[in-house]
Every structure is written in C-alpha cells, then in structure tokens.
Amino acid sequence: MLKIGVVIVVFLFLSSCSPKDIPAQETMVRVDIPEEKMQQEEIQQEVNIMKLTSPLFEDNGNIPRKYTCDGDNINPELQISNVPKGTASLVLIMDDPDIPPAVKEARGIQVFDHWVLFNIPQNIKKIVTASAVGTSGKNSAGQEGYRAPCPPPQYQPTTHRYFFKLYAVDKELDLPAGATKAQVEQAMHGHIIEQAELMGKYDRS
User: Fold this and answer.
1) Domain 51-203: assigned CATH number
2) Where are the domains of the chain?
3) Which among 16, 34, 59, 187 could bridge 173 via Cys, Cβ 3.0 to 4.6 Å?
4) Which residues of 26-50 are buried (b: 16+ CB within 10 A; e: fewer)?
5) pTM of the model
C-alpha cells in the first residue's frame, strides 16, 4: 500500500502543476541519429557533388611538362562528373593568379586567363587532350583557345598555380566566340547552380 500511496501523491502533484511549472528540460525529446547513418548521408552528399578531375595530375599536383609552353602547348584531359540537375550548359575557366607585378603592370591585369570555354553541353563527361568543346573565349594573350602554363623563371614566385574552374549554369550564354572571361562571368552571374575546381602547378625554374 505504501508504494501505491507514493504513486498517487506523485500523480496528484504533477496534475496540479501547470506546463510552465514543469522544467523545460523534462519536456524536451531527444532523438539520437545513429553515427553510421550520419556517415552514410555525408558520403552520399560527397558523391553527388560535381567534380572536375584529370587523369594526368592530381588536385594541387604538378601539371606534366607536355601540357605547358615547354612541351606541346596543348590542354590536358579533364573529366567531369555529377553535373547537377537543371544544368543547361557548362563553363570552364583556367587562370593563373600568381603572375608577377611587372606582368600585371605591363598588361593591366591581376590574373592571367589561360583558357575560356562556355556553352559546353551539359552531358559532356570529358574534354580530351588537344581539344575544345562548346565555344572558345579569349585568353589574356588576346587569342581564342588554350594558352599553356609558362611562368617566367626570372620572376618570383617561379611556381605558379593554375586553377581550372568548372561552372554548371542554368542557361546557355548569349555571347559570341572570343568573349573574355569578364564577359562570361557577367553573363552567368546569378545563373550558377554549382561549381568545381581543380588546381595544378608548374615551375620553370
């Protein structure tokens, strides 16, 4: 009977309390998500991210000499995966932010644009060596097409970084061949769904 009496007293006490009298922590419900499930979701998200890779060099690795001004002056192979839904075209820009101050001053630029491609078909999986897809824009040398890495060895730093940037865009860009990077960036502003990046290095010292 004693146990029953205690239960009745506790019940009567809780019944007499208003919701505001009950400590907040006692009304919270905690849901524990298994760590394994969280890891699986993170892996799935990583798999679905658009990627730009190359079989010729790793991200943050060295670009082979063949694809520079000391070699055949041709573009390396690039591979594209996980292009998101809603993509109407792709844009590829390759540029070098490590140009020396003397070159910046002489050309009136801050970054040297090596390659500009736009209106690339959204189903393209590969840009093969020595080729171009879509429409070619103009590089900082004033030419259409690929301009190979060629860092001047007399200036520091002698190792330059070359950023290959891929953009998934929700429309085709209304631009002619020979458009500059600035024109391409302006045209796709507000229409970028996702982007990916691959960086390679080259040193001529």
Assistant:
1) 3.90.280.10
2) 51-203
3) 187
4) eeeeeeeeeeeeeeeeeeeeeeeeb
5) 0.78
